[in-house]
Prior knowledge:
alpha/beta; Rossmann fold; 37% helix
Amino acid sequence: xxxxxxxxxxxxxxxxxxxxxxxxxxxxxxxxxxxxxxxxxxxxxxxxxxxxxxxxxxxxxxxxxxxxxxxxxxxxxxxxxxxxxxxxxxxxxxxxxxxxxxxxxxxxxxxxxxxxxxxxxxxxxxxxxxxxxxxxxxxxxxxxxxxxxxxxxxxxxxxxxxxxxxxxxxxxxxxxxxxxxxxxxxxxxxxxxxxxxxxxxxxxxxxxxxxxxxxxxxxxxxxxxxxxxxxxxxxxxxxxxxxxxxx
Length: 247
């Protein structure tokens, strides 16, 4: 199934709670980037808020984004970025492979994207082709075994944590990963995992979280506490990640 990028970008822009999820996702990414060389950084798919809005420690950053709305937003935001050494390319990753292969990136960021790619093997092959043996690639995806999905199973709303929910279908997602599945697809496509985990614990769905925020039943302080709760509930965060290198 090919992705309808026009529909996706419109749905994404109006998704409840997503601004909080994006903030926590970036928080984790920044924690990880602090541990790795990222002078030459590639961001594959930037959404409405590229990482350069919250980070300026790179020497050069390249954004590859096929969706018109997101690409134009990145161009506009780049004008006010603290570090303006930014190159934006409007293309799918596979379409930009020849150009990107010349860059020798230290770090490649694939955030909240792999689960939406129709041909994940081809996508990972391109990542393999444009990376060196020293390149670290960070991939994060929603977690099938997050607390809120397991709760839905126990409530009888879905039969399995791997079942495609209405939200998964709405956002054209291709599959639901847990950490084992994410590790497996990386390893079977020529990578080794150097670090992995989950983060951003949330007890309820996006819509439920947003509704509770709207009526002040959940506060900013509570959200910060939820983010930190994953240390006590390992593996139950709303998203999982792997940092990988060429094997």
